[in-house]
Amino acid sequence: QVQLVESGGGLVQAGGSLRLSCAASGSIFSLNAMGWYRQAPGKQRELVATITSGNTTTYPDSVKGRFTVSRDNGKNTVYLQMNSLKPEDTAVYYCNAEGVGVVYGVLRTNRPFNAWGQGTLVTVSS
Question: Residues 86, 101: contact at Cβ < 8 Å?
Fold first, then answer.
């Protein structure tokens, strides 16, 4: 079972910064694309950032220039550095990762996965 554990959420004033971390654990053969999504109260979940295994990143206009996604492949961890936070950034932030895991049973097999973290709350006060 592949699990994603998020940390770094909390309360911050407008203009402040937070750094979110998401560590993937379990029997992982490889991690491919990873990303962050968020869901604000009364709104649908939206993409915040994605990063490929080749470190190609994407951001929506709402966070472009303020948020930076990065990854540490040795630690199976993806980060989201959030600067110049605004009240509208308030949301539950979810980590996502897709890749290939290893299953140990009678035979060792590889199995693709798409995992989500439990979410971490980011609250930005005005």
Answer: no
- Dihedral of alpha carbons 94, 57, 90, 122, sign: positive
From first CA to last CA, the distance across the chain in angstroms is 40
DSSP codes of every residue in the chain: --EEEEE--EEEETT--EEEEEEEESSEEEEEEEEEEEE-TTS--EEEEEE-TT--EE--TTTTTTEEEEEEGGGTEEEEEE-S--GGG-EEEEEEEEEEEEEESSSEEEEEEEEE---EEEEEE-
Per-residue model confidence as pLDDT tens for the chain (126 residues): 899 999 999 999 999 999 999 999 999 999 999 999 999 989 999 999 999 999 999 999 999 999 999 999 999 999 999 999 999 999 999 999 999 999 888 888 899 999 999 999 999 999
d(CA 17, CA 12): 7
Residues 105, 96: contact at Cβ < 8 Å? no
> Rounded to an integer, what distance in angstroms lies between the CA atom of residue 9 and that of residue 20?
6
